[in-house]
Specification:
elongated, binds flavin-adenine dinucleotide, eight-stranded mixed beta sheet, alpha/beta, FAD/NAD(P)-binding domain, about 400 residues
């Protein structure tokens, strides 16, 4: 015999979007549950660079765009959460760095150079004098300009664990293949029948298959692939974007300390975007050459290398460009969302709650008892399951 449950909100996907929204919905009094088919921490979320963007990267295009405006409030919201002052308590989450650096490779276009010196950027980036340069930029061999950017970088493992620890009582592992959806939106998983008032699909790339199960053809999803790199060895901590000739960072480095003296440099930016057509060996060779070009005084020969091909899943845009904001769509009782950025998770959760309120979804008074399903494990960091060469 099936056991029946009624919930206000049933969330699919335990990445940053699902966990953050689940916790906000519970705080607002909703009976919300989350189903995950793999591991909490997500696919993109745990593999992200953990940068809480405030829009500077987007302003490098030369003007304040919709992206810049939408994302401008995010570092403040995250800083409050990290300090335990916000709606979300992230006081236990490890900050890898409170700020990042922007550095010019020397081949900065004059328009980018004047933008960095402009009023628009003055409140965002501070140029550093030579004697303020941190390693590895504190050598005479470094000829470019260095700017400090007040945007934090989080340890994504600690972030996702912090959220998962709070959300665990309402998160269940299920088998997506054997799930049935009945006409009236009842979801049947094993011997459980869950009747949600609203469904939220935030399964990243997995949204496409879930939407198909619900017979939805819109919204459409786009995938923007990356070929990220990991370099492991005795490396100094660096959280920095290298600016080249275009508005997109040529290289973005974040670093993660390992046990002992080693750390991982996690490399993204244009190198990861243009590297999607290269095989891992060619991508590693290109990354090594790029580091040698950009930081020629450092010795990269003793490093171990690995790569991570991964897709960014987003709502489709004309021309396949990065969306400016997080996205919430869908209709009737099934909502579909992609946060676009880790940093946008709080904004997306607010939008979901606004929509529930607009549609008159009331918080049930009766607490849903725990489901008889296992708790999902936590997703590992990319370098914890990498094959090193
Ligand atoms: C390499 C990389 C670096 C990035 N760096 C940054 C950064 O520095 N800063 C920033 O703000 N953003 C960054 N981003 C973007 C950011 O990571 C993503 O926008 C965000 O993590 C997406 O979160 P999500 O919860 O929607 O998806 P995901 O993290 O992908 O989580 C989706 C979850 O859904 C689950 N799932 C899949 N199918 C199903 C199903 N059928 N049923 C139930 N669950 C399912 C998956 O297992 C997964 O747990 C980066 C992205 C990438 C790929």
């Amino acid at each position: 015999m099936k056991r029946s449950y009624s919930v206000d909100l049933l969330i699919f996907g335990g990445g940053i979007a699902g966990l953050w929204t689940l916790l906000c919905a519970r705080q607002a009094g909703y009976q919300a549950l989350l189903l995950e088919n793999h591991a909490l921490g997500g696919v993109q979320s745990i593999a992200s660079q953990g940068i809480i963007h405030g829009g500077t990267k987007y302003a490098l295009g030369g003007s304040v765009t919709a992206s810049t405006r939408a994302i401008g409030d995010m570092p403040g919201i995250w800083r409050d959460a990290l300090a335990g002052r916000g709606d979300m308590d992230l006081s236990g989450v490890r900050l890898l760095s409170g700020h990042q650096y922007l550095w010019s490779s020397g081949s900065l276009t004059s328009s980018l150079a004047s933008l960095l010196a402009s009023k628009l950027m003055q409140s965002r980036v501070a140029p550093l004098a030579r004697d303020e340069h941190p390693p590895p930029f504190d050598v005479s061999g470094f000829r470019g300009r260095l700017y400090r950017l007040e945007e934090p970088v989080l340890d994504t493992a600690s972030l996702m664990k912090g959220l998962a620890d709070q959300a665990r009582p309402w998160c269940c592992l299920y088998d997506a293949e054997s799930m049935e959806i009945r006409n009236n939106n009842t979801v049947v998983v094993g011997n459980l029948e869950i009747s949600p008032c609203r469904v939220l699909l935030v399964a990243g790339k997995g949204n496409a298959a879930l939407m198909e199960r619900w017979g939805m053809t819109v919204p459409r999803m786009q995938l923007r692939p990356l070929h990220m790199l990991m370099a492991r060895g005795k490396l100094p901590p660096v959280h920095a974007h290298c600016l080249g000739a275009s508005a997109n960072p040529r290289l973005t480095i974040t670093s993660y300390p390992l046990e002992g003296e080693e750390s991982v440099w996690y490399l993204g930016g244009e190198l990861a975007e243009t590297g999607v057509t290269r095989d891992p060996a060619a991508q590693i060779a290109e990354a090594r050459a790029e580091l040698e070009r950009l930081l020629p005084w450092m010795d990269f020969t003793p490093l171990q290398w690995a790569t991570l091909p991964i897709d960014r899943a987003e709502v489709a845009t004309p021309g396949g460009k990065r969306p400016d904001d997080c996205y919430l769509g869908g209709d009737g009782s099934v909502m579909v969302a992609w946060p676009t950025k880790l940093a946008f998770a709080p904004r997306l959760a607010d939008r979901v709650l606004e929509r529930l309120a607009q549609e008159g979804v009331q918080a049930s008074e009766q607490e849903t008892p725990p489901l008889d399903l296992p708790a999902p494990p936590l997703a590992p960091l990319p370098w914890e399951h990498a094959t090193w060469s």
